[in-house]
Design brief:
This protein is α/β, with parallel strands linked by helices and 262 residues long. The chain has helices spanning 14-27, 46-52, 71-76, 100-110, 138-150, 152-161, 186-191, 204-213, 238-255, and strands spanning 4-10, 34-39, 60-64, 86-90, 94-95, 114-122, 172-173, 181-185, 217-228. One of its GO terms (molecular function) is glycosyltransferase activity.
């Protein structure tokens, strides 16, 4: 089996992070697994608690940071430590229900040209999540925000964006791999320098996907699955909305506003 590593970037919610860590340890028997938990300066003391927690497993390394450096930089913090074949980028609201990491890593490495993949994610109640997406455009991102409220042409565009007009029950290439659960060849992740540190939050996963696509193909692998609570932050907060706009501006300046190819 391939050598695997994984990283969770945490920000508050100690209990949720612990549940994710324990599910990974329980369902991943690989003795050489390296699981990193980077706490992004949680103001609720989550980092201190994690550092003091005995998970009963030497495969876990907790790295508490003094301040919140952002999602991408948090994951990049372990970049120089990685010696694996495949690295997993995981949200703290992910729960495994089987030995997904080893099997998915083996599948990725066995597929010629493949550099990144994501599994099928479901809500805790079993409902399907529509996370595989086409390459973002300004129109598709606008439709994503307005579809739940206005429906109509916005919903049609959003369904297209989230590839609901495609058969997602079989492995297929995608252009936007959600940062909730990414499997990426470690050599590729290191070669491209990880996430663009210019993003603090939002759209950095779309940016990373585009960087990976310059090195290989990106896949939805629905034969593998996991639970994802998916805590979507409401956009009522003016600061978060501004941050999202800044990130979108950076993304489109780098990659353009045109359509993808999938």
């Amino acid at each position: 089996m391939p050598k695997i590593s994984a990283c969770i970037v945490a920000y508050c919610d100690y209990d949720e992070v612990c549940a994710a860590v324990r599910s990974i340890l329980h369902y991943t028997p690989a003795p050489d697994l390296a699981l990193y938990v980077v706490d992004n300066g949680s103001p609720d003391g989550c980092g201190r608690q994690l550092a003091e927690t005995d998970f009963g497993d030497s495969r876990v390394t907790v790295l508490p940071l003094e301040k919140n450096i952002g999602f991408g930089k948090g994951h990049n913090y372990v970049l120089d430590r990685l010696t694996s074949d495949v690295h997993f980028i995981l949200n703290p609201d992910i729960l495994l229900t089987g030995d997904v990491l080893e099997d998915m890593a083996a599948w990725l490495l066995a597929r010629p040209g493949a550099a990144m993949a994501t599994p099928q994610l479901r809500y805790p109640d079993g409902k399907l999540q529509h996370l595989p997406r086409r390459k973002p455009t300004p129109w598709l991102l606008l439709a994503r925000q307005l579809a739940p409220k206005l429906g109509g042409c916005f919903k049609k565009a959003d369904d297209h964006y989230t590839m609901q007009d495609e058969d997602l029950t079989v492995p297929r290439r995608i252009e936007f791999c959600s940062g909730s659960f990414m499997a990426v060849r470690t050599d590729v992740f290191k070669e491209i320098g990880g996430f663009d540190p210019g993003y603090f939050m939002y759209v950095e996963d779309a940016d990373l996907t585009q960087k990976v696509l310059q090195k290989g193909t990106v896949w939805l692998a629905p034969q593998f699955s996991a639970i994802h609570a998916w805590h979507r932050a409401p956009m009522r907060d003016a600061g978060k909305f501004k941050m999202q706009l800044v990130s979108m501006g950076r993304y489109f300046k780098k990659w353009g506003c045109g359509k993808g190819s999938v």
